Amino acid sequence: MDEIVERFDLDSSLVDSSLPLNWNIAPTNEIYIIRDLQNQRVLDSASWGIIAPWHKTFSEARASQSHAINARSESIHEKPTFRQAFRTTRCLIPATGYYEWATSLGEYPPKQPFYISSSQENTSLSIAGIWSSWKNENGLEIQSAAIITQEAVGKLATIHSRMPVFMQRERWDLWLDPKNREIENLVELMRSNDPAVGLVTRPVSPRVNLVANNSSELIAEVDLGQGQTLF
After folding, report:
1. What is the Cα–Cα distance from 132 to 67, expressed in whole angstroms?
2. What is this structure's pTM?
């Protein structure tokens, strides 16, 4: 938590203590988000998978989250699940890296997992996201969030067709500003001439496919021959 506060030059943290280290985050897991609070950039947390405002019960909301962990940049301003949060409650999602699985359209064996991170050691990725607040039938408030994705480019496109939208540092404040609600402006903030710049990829063990596996060994590089026999 302290490292994120320092790296993103945050004003404060709303999180009481650091979240447990997690190398295999799954839908509904708690993740860090960076959001605006009264014109200050603060650290907060949210459940991964945004909860649409129309859900009535906790069980219904939880079941929906696995289908709303990602929002497509091309249609986020139109989809009922995402459009209000896109206009009013955007965030950054800090991550050391993320996993992607090769599709049959690329040059790698289908379903081979890759770990993607910054080429600069100890540098967090700043992923564009949205968040919202929802209350269950008992009045309990739950914050949830989703990652924004775009069409993959460059080396990443040889692995998978999609990639996260990464928000450039000089755009952070504009992105987080809840008063910035013009769709055209927000769409422009998500655009980049080289969205995959500074990223490196490495094949990792298919052990990451099982959420019960959770250790730093999951991001260790394997050769593709080995990687296909470990799981």
Report:
1. 15
2. 0.94
Residue 149 backbone phi and psi in degrees, to 5: -120, 160
Q: Which residue in this structure is represented by tokens 């219904």?
A: 60
**Where residue 158 sits, what CATH number does that domain have?**
3.90.1680.10
102 is a domain residue: no
Closest of 115, 123, 143 to residue 53, by C-alpha: 143
Report if residue 173 sits inside a domain: yes
Domain span holding position 184: 2-96+124-195
Q: Is residue 86 part of a domain?
A: yes
Is 226 part of a structural domain of the chain?
A: no
Q: Tell me how far apart the alpha carbons of residues 213 and 208 are, in angstroms, rounded to a whole number.
A: 6
| pLDDT averaged per 10 residues, the chain (length 231) | 94 95 96 97 98 92 95 97 97 97 84 95 94 90 97 94 97 97 97 96 96 96 65 36
Provide the 10 A C-beta neighbour count for residue 186: 19
Nearest C-alpha neighbor of 116 from the set 89, 147, 85: 147
